[in-house]
Design a protein that fits this description.
With 362 residues, the protein is an alpha/beta fold. 42% of the residues lie in helices and 11% in strands. The protein has one domain: Rossmann fold. It has an eight-stranded mixed β-sheet with strand order 1-2-4-3-5-6-7-8, sandwiched between helices. The longest helix has 18 residues.
Length: 362
């Protein structure tokens, strides 16, 4: 009985730790090898590096069979795409669990993440020039360039039938995933999307407009070292993407550390470019991309869409409308997470991760 009590206490403590990890607040750095990435004390071969010009990390599983007797590499690689103002560090708690049975790639789409080093500026002389094109069309093309360099550089260029991946995505990352699927739907097996709707309702549109106003025009900033607008944006996006009860449970001191992490791991220029270039293009709306995916001769195997019941950016009704494009019967592909806001991977970490794995592994 005493042993059972201790086991229950450990589970509770693990859930508490998970709840406190958000927007890169975890202290474990992925650029180091760490036994914490494996339940058996062995380390994955992980390091943050640039792949096809994008900051990325690849984790490989231990070479052992999964519970079904299959080799761990029988699953296609999994690509993780986070939301706007997130970074690789935002998913540090998820990556070890997601990579137990398959190789996992996470990269930061252009406009998201820290400023690139000079060697990666690709001939541009300023960040403004570097972020000159962050359109969803470019994001879709970038996706396959990163994937091909990461996993398929040794395969024949015409052998696309074996260059298949799964995707787990959140918010803006979901829109990037839809763009990638719209351009090459035959190469994406299963697509898991969190926090993306058919369109924007009024409240979501107000939030997007406010972020554009906050970041505004860089030419109006007198001091290049002034990040007050980025800080204001960080406060605003956190308030908009988490449920009120979750924020209340975290407290203002911890939330302030999230603001610091957003500012540390993103650039004002990149976030401004994403807001200005990707939010109003009807051809690249989630609904338009989903319709193109479904109309393709060889479409994706399946799609799953989950949304928080208190999501202010992609409401449950908007997410349901998007799900209906992929399937009239949405019982198996659509789920509402009760009591959760927009940031499901951060607010309901274990639930999100389990939903991803159950969907991909079935």
């Amino acid at each position: 009985m005493m042993a059972l009590s201790w086991m229950l206490l450990v589970v509770v403590l693990m859930d508490m730790v998970a709840a406190f990890i958000s927007y890169g607040s975890m202290n474990i750095r992925l650029s180091r090898r760490s036994h914490l990435f494996s339940s058996e004390g062995t380390s994955f071969q992980e390091e943050i590096r640039y792949i096809a010009g994008r900051r990325a990390i690849i984790l490989h599983p231990p070479d052992k069979p999964n519970p079904n007797g299959q080799n761990s590499h029988s699953y296609p690689p999994l690509v993780i795409l986070g939301g706007m103002a997130q970074s690789i560090s935002s998913y540090e708690f998820h990556l070890p669990q997601l990579s137990k049975l398959r190789s996992v790639l996470m990269y930061e789409p252009i406009g998201i993440g820290p400023a690139p080093p000079y060697s990666e500026l690709q001939g541009n002389t300023s960040l403004k020039q570097y972020y000159n094109d962050v359109s969803l069309e470019r994001h879709g093309n970038d996706f396959w360039e990163v994937v091909d360099e990461a996993f398929f550089s040794d395969k024949d260029d015409d052998d696309n039938n074996t260059k298949i991946v799964d995707v787990a995505s959140f918010s803006f990352g979901g829109r990037v995933a839809l763009s990638a699927a719209a351009s090459q739907p035959h190469r994406l097996r299963r697509l898991h999307i969190s926090g993306v709707g058919h369109g924007r309702d009024t409240l979501a549109s107000v939030h997007i407009t406010s972020w554009k106003e906050i970041l505004g025009d860089k030419t109006k900033v007198k001091n290049d070292d002034d990040n007050s607008r980025l800080q204001a944006f960080a406060w605003s996006i956190i308030l908009a993407t988490y449920s009120s009860q979750f924020l209340e449970s975290m407290g203002p001191d911890r939330i302030k550390t999230w603001v610091g992490s957003v500012c540390e791991n993103n650039t004002e220029e990149g976030l401004r470019a994403i807001l200005m270039q990707t939010q109003d293009a009807d051809e690249w709306s989630p609904a338009a991309m989903a319709n193109r995916i479904q109309a393709a001769d060889k479409s994706i195997d399946s799609c799953r869409i989950i949304v928080g019941s208190q999501d202010n950016i992609a409401s449950p009704m908007q997410a349901l409308q998007l799900a209906k494009i992929f399937c009239d019967d949405t019982d198996d592909i659509y789920k509402v997470i009760e009591g959760c806001g927009h940031a499901i991977p951060m607010e309901a970490m274990r639930l999100w991760r389990e939903d991803v794995l159950q969907y991909l592994n079935k």
